[in-house]
Amino acid sequence: MTIDDSIPFLDLVTPHRELESSLLQVLRSASRTAAFIGGPMLTDFEESFAWFCDTRFCVGVSSGTDALRFALIAAGVGTGDVVVTVPNTFIATTEAISQAGALPEFVDIDERTYNMDPNKLKEYLETRCFHDEKSGKLISRRSGRPVVGIVPVHLYGQMADMDPILSLAENYGLVVIEDACQAHGAEYFSRKRNRWFKAGSMGRAAAFSFYPGKNLGACGEAGAITTNCEDIAVQARQLRDHGQSKKYYHDREGYNGRLDAIQAGFLKVKLTYLSEWNAARHLAARHYVDLFESSHLTLTAAPTLPYESEWVHAIYHLFVVRVPNRVALIEELAAARIGSAIHYPIPLHLQKAYANLAYAHGDFPVSERVAREVVSLPMYPTLTPKQQARVVDAAVSCLQRQPGSASQHLSCNTVHAQ
Ligand SMILES: *Cc1c(COP(=O)(O)O)cnc(C)c1O
Fold first, then answer.
1. Ligand 1, atom 6: nearest CA belongs to which residue?
2. Is 336 strand, coil or helix?
C-alpha cells in the first residue's frame, strides 16, 4: 500500500467531507421548497455576514468581481472616470473598474505589506493630478480624466493601511471601495479612531469573493458587497437583479448578478466556522515563522516572511514568502511532493490585457520586484504542524544551497498573537 504523503497547496476536500451532512441539508431544504433565487436562505446569510463584518448591510451577488463592479457603480463611478488601485492584485480588481466604465490607474505597493503604499498614493494625488478650476475636479495628468475613487486591496489576508488612505480620500473627495476578496475577517486598528475595524467596514463599500478557495468559499461562484450606506445597498440590490426596484419595474439597466439561495445556504453553514478556520490559519502562520526562525539559515539565505504590523490581525488567505531564486525553491518543493503557487507572477500594469494603458517596466518597481520573488506556501486550516515541518525542511535545504544572493530586504517577521 502506498501512502499519499503529498502536501497539496490547498485542501478543499477535508472541510467539505466534514461538513457534508449540513451541506446536504441545505440542498434538501432548497429542493423541497424550490426556493433557488432570493428567499430566506439568502437574507439569512446576508444578515449573518453583515454582522460578521460589522456593517449595516450585505448584498449577496454572483462573484467577487460583480461585487466590486456593482459597488463601484453604486458609489457613482462611471464612464470616463479614473479609479486608483495597485498593480499587485488579481486582475478582477481592474476588470471591475473597467467594466464600471472607468480607467484603472496604479500606485505602487509597500514593500513590507505588499499592499497599497499610502505615500505613493499621496505622491500620485499631489504630483500626478491637478485641480481643474473650471470643473472643480481632480484630473489625472496621465489620462486627462477625473479621478473619483480608490480601490485598496487587502491582499493575502493582510490589510492595506487604511487610516492614511481614508484621510487622503477625504481630502481629495474620493470614494473608497475596499477589495476585501482575500480578507474575510481580517482586522485593522485605526490609530486615528482608536479601535479595531473589520475588513470591509471602512470604505464606502467593500467587495468579498466566496470563490471556493477563499477563506470563506461557496461550493461554486459567489460574492458579496458590504456597506454601511443604505443607498449603496439599495442600488447594489437593483444592479444584481436587472435594475429592478420591483418585479418588472426597471429603474435602470442592471445585470444578472444574483447570489444563488443554495450557495447562500452553504455559506451560512461555513460562516459558523470561519473564525475558527482563520484562527487555525493564524496559528499555522506563526508556526511557519517559528520553523524558519529556528532553521539556522543565514540572514542572506533566509526568505522574507510575511510582515504583520501591530495594527493588523491578518487572516492568512495566503502565506507568501520572498526569495531571490524562486524557481529553485518551487522545484525543490515539487520534488518533495509539496504544492506551491505564485500570487502573482506578472503585475497588472505589465499584463498583455493592459498594453493599451502604456505602462512600462520600471513604472512600479516594488510591485515588479515582489512579482519576481513571491512564492505562496501551503496554507489552510487543516494543515498540520508535521506537514509544515516538511515544507520548511524542503525549503531550508534548498535555500541553504543558494549562494547568498543579495536579499537586501529586511526579513521582517512579526506575526502577533490574535
Ligand atoms: C478572488 C478575487 C477577486 C474576484 O473574485 P471572484 O469571486 O473570483 O470574482 C477579486 N479580487 C481579489 C483580490 C481576489 O482575490
1. 64
2. coil
Mean pLDDT calculated for residue range 296-314 = 92
User: Is residue 396 very low, low, confident or very high in pLDDT (cuts 50, 70, 90)?
Assistant: very high
Q: Whose CA is nearest to atom 2 of ligand 1?
A: 181
Residue 337: give the domain boundaries.
275-408
User: Cell for 405?
Assistant: 544572493
Q: Which among 182, 221, 315 is the best mutation to test ligand 1's pocket, defined by most ligand atoms within 8 Å of the CB?
A: 182
Phi, psi of 203 (to 5 degrees): -80, 180
Q: Do residues 45 and 153 both lie within one domain? A: yes
Who wins on pLDDT, 141 or 2? 141
> DSSP of 358-400, one letter per residue?
T--TTSSHHHHHHHHHEEEEP--TT--HHHHHHHHHHHHHHHH
Verify that 181 and 290 share a domain, yes or no: no
Measured in angstroms, how far is the CA atom of residue 162 from the centroid of ligand 1?
20
248: domain CATH number is 3.40.640.10
Q: Domain ends where: 239, 268, 297? A: 268
Q: What is the CATH number of the domain that holds 333?
A: 3.90.1150.10
Please state the φ and ψ torsions of residue 106, each to the nearest 5 degrees: -115, 150
Residue 387: what residue type?
Q
Residue 132 domain-assigned (yes or no):
yes
Q: Which of 65, 109, 102 is CA-nearest to residue 225?
A: 65
Identify whether the C-beta of residue 69 lies closer than 8 Å to the C-beta of residue 94.
no
Give the chain's domain count.
Answer: 2
Q: pTM (2 decimals)? A: 0.95
Both 281 and 182 in one domain: the answer is no
* Burial class of residue 360 in the structure, from the number of CB atoms within 10 Å of its CB (0-12 exposed, 13-18 middle, 19+ buried): exposed
- Residues sharing a CB contact under 8 Å with residue 156, sequence separation 6 or more, in sequence order: 114, 182, 306, 314, 316, 317, 318, 319, 320, 343
- pLDDT, the chain, mean: 95
Q: Look at residue 308 in the predicted model and tell me its pLDDT.
A: 85
> Which residues touch 31 (CB under 8 Å, ≥6 apart)?
none
pLDDT tens string 160-215: 999 999 999 999 999 999 999 999 999 999 999 999 999 999 999 999 999 999 99
Residue located nearest, by CA, to atom 14 of ligand 1: 181
For β-strands 374-377 and 319-322, DSSP reports them as antiparallel
Cis amide bond preceding 344, omega within 30:
yes
Does 6 map to a domain? no
